[in-house]
Design a protein that fits this description.
By secondary structure, this protein is of the alpha/beta class. The strands form 2 sheets. The chain has an 8-stranded parallel β-barrel, surrounded by 5 helices. A two-stranded antiparallel ribbon has the order 9-10. 42% of the residues lie in helices and 14% in strands. The protein has a domain of 239 residues: TIM Barrel.
């Protein structure tokens, strides 16, 4: 334990050397920060019980024109999200259109108007909002450079200050989505800078943090909690990938070969589709998926580790990404996996935010801009009852 803490401390010093002269890093919350009463934090956490991600709108798009922002997700969509029974959304935001490269401490006012209008539209439906900074991979890879971290912290402080007038009971601030920082010790220090910057700009708001790399469960378990007690800890969960990302050509070398992968998994169930997979490494990966026997019980064992970690550290935990790619999965099996995930998370008191509203993992079917709920998915999520 002493060696681990020493390593963490050394990494913090290394990751934050560029900040010492400007005083942006503090291992404890700033003196003006309002420390969260446990009851207040739990009351806020209750707004994050069952949510959905708003993807490909203000993030993950090649086009951030006014037309795209006005039409991709509309007031009709937000009203439908509320009607379906969700209590919050995760508002994914690419920072580049908001961030002044030459002066990261100021925000681009023209684009900020679009951002504010979207936030107003969501809050008007009495949905809580996780403002999730969701950058491109290129942006995140530059976090290897201390100057990029410094600029990002300045940006976050400015955005947090802009958001500080928003209701802290309904607006949550998430440091970054899946940081892609491989070194957990460096990430601890980098994220500490972001937490300090956000806290300086928004003393009362709850911050959401996650582990290094892809913000997975294992990365969260490797994370040391921060001194700031107005923080919720987050992980993403897409296990088993052979099922949740079948047919996805962006997610790994084997997955593009899979169609109709069964869930739950067993050697017998997988044997029925092995002949459809010609790629030998992909076949081997699928055999292992069958042997691993993925079921509700297997998922529950993983989720219980998140709950135990939260209890050990006396912190609240949420899962703000989980889902299964729709295009090549059997609808009944997909619904069962979602239902098992939801059951495990709720059993352990972990809030959840499904990925996603209208993308490849969607909870709705959208045709010509008009969305209708996918009945099996809604049922699996325990909504609409």
């Amino acid at each position: 334990m002493l060696k681990r803490r020493a390593a963490i401390f050394a990494a913090i010093l290394s990751a934050t050397s560029a900040f010492v002269s400007i005083g942006m890093f503090n291992s404890t919350p700033p003196a003006h920060a309002e420390q969260a009463d446990t009851g207040v934090l739990r009351a806020r956490f209750a707004h994050l019980r069952h949510g959905v991600n708003l993807s490909h709108w203000f993030a993950q798009s090649a086009n951030y024109s006014k037309e795209h922002l006005d039409t991709f997700t509309t007031a009709e969509d937000i009203a439908l999200i509320k009607t379906m029974g969700f209590d919050h959304v995760r508002f994914t935001v690419e920072p580049a259109p908001l961030m002044n490269a030459g002066d990261p401490a100021s925000l681009k006012s023209d684009y900020l108007r679009y951002f504010d209008a979207a936030l107003d539209m969501i809050l008007a439906q009495h949905l809580a909002v996780i403002v999730d900074i969701h950058p491109s991979d290129e942006f995140k890879l530059r976090l290897k450079d201390d100057r990029q971290v410094e600029n990002f912290a300045k940006f976050w402080r400015a955005l947090a200050q802009h958001l500080s007038s928003r209701d802290p009971e309904m607006v949550f601030l998430e440091t970054i989505n899946e940081p892609m920082v491989e070194d957990p010790y460096r990430w601890f220090g980098v994220q500490a800078k972001l937490v300090a910057a956000i806290r300086a700009g928004a003393p009362r708001h709850t911050i959401i943090v996650s582990g290094h790399r892809w913000s997975g469960l294992w990365e969260m378990l490797a994370l040391e909690p921060y001194a700031d007690d107005n923080v919720i800890y987050n992980f993403h969960y897409y296990e088993p990938f052979a099922f949740t990302h079948q047919g996805a050509n962006w997610a790994g070398p084997n997955l593009q070969f899979y169609r109709n992968v069964p869930y739950p998994s067993s050697p017998e169930a997988v044997a029925r589709i092995l002949d459809t997979v010609a790629d030998e490494p992909a076949r081997l990966n699928l055999v292992h998926y069958g042997q691993d026997r993925w079921t509700l019980e297997r998922i529950d064992r993983d989720i219980s580790m998140a709950a135990e970690w939260g209890a050990k550290h006396h912190v609240l935990v949420t899962c703000n990404e989980f889902g299964a790619f729709r295009r090549f999965s059997d609808p009944a099996d997909r619904a069962r996996w979602i239902a098992d995930m939801r059951a495990a998370l709720e059993k352990h008191g972990i809030g959840w935010t499904m990925w996603d509203y209208a993308g490849g993992f969607s909870v709705v079917n959208k045709v010509d801009g008009h969305a209708t709920p996918d009945a099996e998915t809604i049922k699996a999520l325990g909504l609409g009852r």
